[in-house]
Amino acid sequence: MSEEYHKNWYIKGIAESVLKEIEEDGNEVDDVLDDYLQRTHWTIYSREPDDAKIVVELVRKYIKELTETRS
């Protein structure tokens, strides 16, 4: 996936940050992704409520693509 933006959101950067946090916490992506994305949703929602859902879905898609290529 190329570097994608939704309005002013850097999807690739958010996804990489979520993955890094999951890995630093010693968790498996598939086991905890929804929990981490929920926290991401609330962070985005606090800034731009209308963007939260679409940004999180784009981040989820990007993470799935990244983790599939790692396997």
Features:
73% helix; 3 helices; 71 residues; two-stranded antiparallel ribbon; mainly alpha
Secondary structure topology:
Elements: E1 5-6, E2 9-10, H1 11-24, H2 29-47, H3 52-70
Antiparallel strand pairs: 1-2
What is the count of helical runs?
3
Derived from helix and strand composition plus strand pairing, the structural class reads: mainly alpha
Helix content: over 70%
| Fraction of residues in β-strands | 5-15%
CA radius of gyration: 12 Å
Oligomer: single chain
Biggest sheet layout: 2 strands, antiparallel
What distance lies between the first and last C-alpha atoms, to the nearest angstrom?
Answer: 16 Å
The average pLDDT is: 89
SS elements, strand count: 2
Morphology call: globular
Low-confidence stretches: none
Q: What is the helix/strand order?
A: EEHHH
Total domain units? 1
What order do the strands of the largest sheet run in, or round the barrel if closed? 1-2
